[in-house]
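for the recovery benchmark. tokens below, seq after
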């Protein structure tokens, strides 16, 4: 009997190393015992580490698809998964087509494990709800109870999605921690270790109520997509029953209601001269949050308005919020925002000394599977949204404006100017104030060559320095 010992329940690399060595030695599946953690029997401890294969020239056959499936299946709580996977790979050496035999018992079991783990992984991505940690800026904790051991496998997804946040995901068997640089794993935790409610919960409720369409209610499909066992950790769950109860009435109301007139710019007017600047900005923000001038406004989660001090001498204008900005409701908090923050720091500028906004205030995207793919705004969107940029500029009156990329230039100058030209010669904004241009941070992130990315990054920092010198020198 050979003993194959793994470091942990999800030690895929360990399983792979053992499987390779066992196959090379021609060890049959029934002659292997799989153990996790410290050796349970000292008689076997000598065989714990993968034994060096006896036949160094032999190369086991394995498909990429099997390895991908095995990695997922290993996260399952089924005790027999290590043995099942080894039996499959052992049999595949004789029968390369084994996995296509969908009536084979081992294949059926593998597919069931993969399906169950994939579903659990999907639910974790959909139902993890971060709550802000009190008195700690941008630090969030989520509590989740997965069915399988999926945290290690799933954590990189959350790193990509919430790169700019410091977060922890706590589960009963394992915790994942991201500090914006490093991903670490720790022991399991208890529900009480995660904060309870916060202001973000209202955002989830608003979002859920906004996407709930009473005319398309299918309770069975909804509860299958959002199983009840997850409800206790979802802030929006307490809306489900009342929304379902009122669905019929709301639908009848929608049928009977007269058609609504399209919104016009005048609908967003506000009494700016009568308001103190701080109140005017708050009022502008409130009106903009209901803006529906563009066809894509209703698809975005929310309006992402500019932010910064009212007396900022420098205004920086980007293109439009991205996926993460749309969720967070703040400009430049995603990957492009991280690069922007680093460039600001290098240029000696504090982010909170600058007014940061976008030419277009709603995220425009096209859905692709579960992803939302960025789409550039059309000229009509830029022109409509100039209403808000004008209002912001009237209030902030920046001494200098830095336009990042072609959309910002078009919005500020009212016409298309090549970035290189606007960067070199500067341009007049629609209100007569001076502007200079620079490359958009997202364009730097898109570079595949390191040298090109470094050069563009250096020019962004140089342009920020230039803008700072002009904005703040005049201010002094
Ligand atoms: N890109 C932008 O132009 N603006 C943002 O807020 C984020 C990404």
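predicted aa per position
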């Amino acid at each position: 009997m050979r003993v194959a010992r793994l470091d942990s329940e999800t030690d895929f690399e360990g399983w792979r190393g053992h499987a390779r060595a066992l196959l090379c030695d021609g060890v049959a599946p029934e002659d292997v015992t799989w153990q996790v953690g410290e050796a349970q029997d000292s008689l076997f401890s000598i065989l714990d580490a993968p034994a060096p294969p006896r036949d160094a020239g032999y190369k086991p056959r394995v498909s990429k698809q099997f390895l991908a499936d095995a990695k997922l299946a290993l996260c399952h709580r089924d005790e027999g998964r290590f043995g099942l996977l080894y039996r499959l790979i052992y049999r595949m050496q004789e029968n390369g087509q084994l996995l296509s035999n969908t009536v084979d018992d081992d294949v059926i079991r593998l597919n069931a494990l993969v399906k169950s783990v994939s579903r659990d992984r999907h639910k974790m991505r959909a139902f993890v709800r971060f709550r802000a940690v009190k008195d700690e800026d941008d630090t969030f904790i989520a509590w989740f109870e997965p069915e399988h051991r999926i945290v290690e496998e799933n954590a990189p997804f959350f790193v990509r999605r919430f790169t700019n946040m410091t977060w922890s995901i706590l589960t009963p068997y394992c915790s994942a921690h991201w500090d914006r640089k490093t991903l670490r794993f720790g022991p399991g935790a208890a529900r009480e270790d995660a904060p309870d409610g916060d202001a973000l919960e209202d955002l989830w409720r608003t979002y859920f109520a906004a996407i709930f369409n009473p005319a398309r209610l299918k309770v069975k499909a909804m509860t299958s997509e959002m199983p009840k066992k997850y409800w206790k950790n979802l802030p929006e769950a307490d809306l489900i029953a009342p929304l379902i109860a009122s669905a019929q009435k709301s639908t009848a109301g929608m049928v009977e209601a007269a058609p609504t007139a399209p919104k016009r710019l005048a609908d967003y007017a506000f009494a700016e001269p009568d308001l103190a600047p701080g109140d005017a900005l708050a009022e502008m923000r409130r009106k903009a949050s209901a803006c529906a001038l563009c066809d894509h406004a209703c698809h975005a989660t929310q309006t992402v308005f500019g932010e910064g001090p009212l007396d900022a001498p420098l205004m920086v204008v980007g293109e439009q919020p991205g996926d993460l900005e749309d969720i967070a409701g703040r400009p430049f908090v995603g990957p492009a925002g991280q690069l922007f923050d680093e460039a600001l720091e290098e240029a000696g500028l504090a982010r909170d000394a600058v007014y940061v906004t976008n030419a277009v205030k709603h995220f425009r995207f096209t859905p692709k599977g579960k992803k939302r793919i960025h789409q550039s705004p059309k000229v009509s969107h830029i022109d409509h949204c100039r209403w808000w940029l004008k209002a912001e500029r009237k209030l902030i009156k920046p001494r200098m404006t830095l336009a990042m990329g072609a959309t910002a230039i078009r919005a500020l100058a009212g016409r298309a100017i090549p970035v290189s030209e606007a960067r070199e010669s500067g341009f007049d904004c629609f209100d007569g104030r001076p502007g200079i241009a620079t490359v958009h941070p997202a364009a730097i992130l898109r570079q595949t060559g390191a040298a090109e990315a470094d050069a563009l990054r250096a020019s962004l920092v140089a342009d920020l320095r230039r803008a700072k010198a002009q904005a703040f020198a005049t201010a002094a």
